[in-house]
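thought: fold this chain, then report.
action: predict
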Amino acid sequence: MSAESTGQNEHYLRVFRRRFQAWRGTRPFWAGLFVLLSGFPIMYFPYANLQIGHLTLAMATTGGAGSLIIGVLLVVLGFSLWFQRHVRTFAGVAAILLALVSIPVSNLGGFVIGFLLALIGGAMAVSWAPAKEEQPVVAAQQNTAGAPQPAAAGATNGAGGEFDDLSGTTPNGTNGRHSAG
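observation:
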């Protein structure tokens, strides 16, 4: 073991932070956080009893059940943005629509706090795109001589780009057929 190796001597909090940053970088983390946080004021305010001195102000409205449903859906959409990033467009559009519905249903969208958080988080979710993975460079397969290569099983035949091999072992496994539905 040399002094330069940091694999086993590294503090567990640094390891956790590095892994969290790597996890966070592969998904719309901030969009999910905004959408998740937007659900709480929308759920809370219709059921809140505010104390101002000896005065109790009840915010109970007829839209209390609707506010609870909207808030829970926004929290679930926030978690789904974190753990199922492939639904980011659906979750973003649904968060924006739920934010718009929360204006008349739940006290102006949780007194505009939940509305703005859901709107910003939904827009961030729709606009997020995963980073492109770098393709490995394979220099050994390049033919510098320019000589034609013999056709192998599964090679394209040049007419329409379909495969000659009908054994079902083509790279995409479609056997030259396209799925139309």
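thought: worth noting. Strands lie at 49-52, 55-58.
final: tokens above.
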